[in-house]
């Protein structure tokens, strides 16, 4: 019986070969991937929701009550979706060389959301989205795009009011915490 800790032949065999390191690395990777699969409980079967269709909630096309994807938020989405809008604002110079001109900033676009709170086209959104904007667009959930005018800003509360030229729009009612 030889002692592995002594002798020159033991020192020469203590250095692992490239083949042995490769096999050890492959084993480590395999066990790591198996561990991740077990820990995350991934389901690759045909019934997996990951293989299901993508669902986009637009207006009243959300899943019906009692369906597998139904939740308490579905009725809220159905009631509010048509009044919610996307807001985009352009700031800065339109000159494509404005970066090199002193004092002018290149144009930037910011985006956010808002909602109609009056049927005659008034939108409540965030101040930081439209502040210093030169051009503001509002896109409805139905895909209609309107140019909006800035009515008022309140940086302290980060609120802004916009108006578009449209009538009879769906609205969300503002609550009253005093009641």
What are the SSEs and their pairings?
Blueprint: H1 8-13, H2 18-40, H3 72-80, E1 84-91, E2 108-118, E3 122-126, H4 127-130, E4 135-140, E5 145-154, E6 159-163
Short description:
This protein has a 6-stranded antiparallel β-barrel. By secondary structure, the protein is α+β, with helices and mostly antiparallel strands.
Structure description:
With 179 residues, the protein is α+β, with helices and mostly antiparallel strands. Helix content is 23%, strand content 25%. The radius of gyration is 30 Å and the shape is elongated. The N and C termini lie far apart (91 Å).
The N- and C-terminal alpha carbons lie at a distance of: 91 Å
Question: Quick one: how many beta strands?
Answer: 6
Helical percent range?
10-25%
User: Which strand order do you get reading across the main beta sheet?
Assistant: 1-2-3-6-5-4
Uncertain runs are 1-10, 48-55
Shape: elongated
Strand content: 25-35%
Order of helices and strands: HHHEEEHEEE
Q: Which structural class is indicated by helix and strand composition?
A: alpha+beta
What's the main sheet like? 6 strands, antiparallel, barrel
Taking all residues together, what is the mean pLDDT?
A: 76
Radius of gyration: 30 Å
How many DSSP helices?
4
